[in-house]
Here is the input.
Amino acid sequence: TQHAAVCLLAEGVPDGDVYVTGNTVVDAVLEAAEMPYTFDDQRLEALASGRDGRFVLMTAHRRESWGAQMEQVCLGVRDVLDTFPDISLVFPVHRNPIVRETVDAVLAGHPRVLLTEPLDYLPFVHLMKAATLIMSDSGGVQEEAPSLGTPVVVLRETTERPEALEAGAVRLAGVTRDGVAAAGRAVLGDPVAYQAMVEAPNPFGDGQAARRIIEILDVRL
Here is the structure.
């Protein structure tokens, strides 16, 4: 990104050695989003196809959020569901038993919560594309979702992807129940704010990063 280039130049890297190409993860997610996929799980297929209404896609697994913070995050997400009775939640849960214990205690059994096993890349991309909103502590999701037009509420106190915040593609929620609930409600409850996030450009690339890298290497080597 341009932000990363500025940081490298500030560290003394020669200007002629810095190229802004975008991230190849954007190339990958755009390609995957065009690949056909049908879910074996009919509940997921109904949501991904749009037949079963709006849904939030959630991921949470970061070590610093284990325990009380993870519980707070899950409670905040449950509050969002209680505010919007037409919204379902899909949460592919990390296999770490510490994560699962907390998630199950707060979210399992809710009538509009679907807890699944972790998903492979292709089905996960299709869920990102179909979701109304993503609530996640994943750095990769912050880079991928803007290209799919899906807003992201970041379940962290800080993010090492400041470009996404500056572009307006993500919103930082923190890890308290009130903060998570407020961020989710603000995005889902304000059509103007929501549409602005949908239309925010992806600062991490346009799907042409690999081509640019090859062209640069061809010249330099």
